[in-house]
Design a protein that fits this description.
eight-stranded parallel beta sheet, single chain, alpha/beta, 8 strands, 283 residues, 10 helices
Length: 283
């Protein structure tokens, strides 16, 4: 379940690459896959599950998303597409991708719209077509909108978090207070822009710490979050993505070493690469 601390992400991968990367992920030991309606790759992910997943369905954790800002009818039809493309009769986790549509259309960006979408997600949960439901990019105020009407509470909020970002918009504390798992996307800051020396894959800080443990910079960046997930309540794991079997394997290999308090402190204090604010601008 959500206690699987490292999953394989598929953002920005088309069907072909998603198929390859998910099959490679399964072959090196992943059992948690993250995708979304908007990624346009669920057919590839579904085919990979069909062709390459060798264990039982209950041993696999599939997380997907529907766009934000949908009304109740749209929620049902978008999730039907998820399941058709994934060739599944249920997903383990379904989240709304954003507190509005990505264009932030006024009619699709309001507390009322979030509440309608949430109640429609609850209906999917109660039907058994999603074993758990959650939110993404939600700041504390958006979370409150949903909690006002929820009979099923969100179990996960997926938000940008990595070394350098700090707690963008004060979301981590809110999630802990509300007992919602805070899950990091972009733990290696994939889409960020930064100076090469600040890279979370091979930049100066993470490389230096990595050398002390005989691991890579990426492993340090992932371990920074995984170590919090293993030691603190309501911090969930990470979903790095790669289409390289070796990188997929090393991204999973973050349990054989522990960062010292001083190293964790240095990583907490980093201010680059910075997080991308913007979620809080959604009305």
């Amino acid at each position: 379940g959500i206690d699987e601390v490292v999953g394989a992400g598929t953002w920005q991968y088309n069907d072909t690459i998603a198929y390859e990367s998910v099959c490679k992920a399964f072959s090196v030991g992943y059992n948690f896959i993250d995708t979304a309606w908007i990624y346009g790759n669920e057919r590839g992910v579904g085919k990979a599950i069909k062709d390459c997943w060798k264990k039982t369905r209950s041993e696999l954790f599939v997380m997907t998303k529907i766009p934000g800002g949908l009304n109740a009818t749209e929620v049902a039809s978008y999730h039907e597409q998820n399941m058709e493309w994934l060739q599944l009769d249920y997903v383990d986790h379904l989240m709304t991708h954003f507190p509005a549509d990505f264009q932030v259309t006024p009619s699709r960006a309001s507390p009322k719209a979030r509440q309608e979408e949430w109640l429609a997600l609850e209906k999917i949960y109660k039907s058994g077509q999603a074993r758990s439901i959650g939110i993404s990019h939600y700041v504390p105020r958006h979370i409150d909108d949903v909690l006002e009407v929820a009979t099923v509470r969100p179990s996960v909020n997926q938000v940008e978090y990595h070394i350098g970002s700090g707690d963008v918009d004060g979301v981590i504390q809110k999630c802990v207070d509300e007992k919602i798992y805070f899950m990091s996307f972009s733990p290696l800051c994939g889409p960020c822009s930064y100076e090469p020396k600040d890279s979370l894959i091979n930049g100066d800080l993470v490389q230096k710490i990595g050398q002390a443990h005989n691991v890579t910079g990426s492993q340090v960046s992932l371990r920074f979050i995984v170590q919090q997930a293993l030691t603190k309540p309501y911090i969930a794991g990470v979903i790095p993505k790669s289409n390289n079997a070796e990188h997929l394997a090393s991204n999973l290999d973050v349990f054989g070493f522990e960062l010292t308090e001083a190293e964790m402190g240095a990583l907490y204090n980093a201010t680059v690469p910075a997080g991308q604010p913007g979620d809080a601008d959604v009305p």
